[in-house]
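note to self: dont lose this again. the chain is below, predicted strucutre after it. 134 aa total, dont forget to put it in the shared folder this time
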Amino acid sequence: MHTAIMSRPTSMSSRSWEEIGAAKRKEVSDSIPEEWRIPPRVFPPETQLDVANFPVESGLFTTEELEITAAYAEDILENVRTSKWTAVQVAQSFCKRAAVAHQLVGILGCTDNVLVSCESGLLMSTRSIHRQTA
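---
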């Protein structure tokens, strides 16, 4: 039986945690689609601590995106089941809201992977989700 010895890549070990963190923050920031970026004219001042109403007040979201991201899970499932919304619309709305939230307060948002999964049909069908929650 052989025991593998794992070592860190030299490029990682020669960088400080600050450099690694900065690179990761840049990677996340660069992954946000241009159309989801907050324009400087809309960005709230740094002195504004409460940004909870930003999605509604900013004008960056459509009425449908706001409706989707404010909906309860049961309502989302029903609206996807009845084809009012698609899984891609739901995923895009939540990812856009997460990307905007990340720009405001520094959370990690979802982008390409979720949308690729939706577009490839890798998400469970609404029917099987409904059966699992019933």
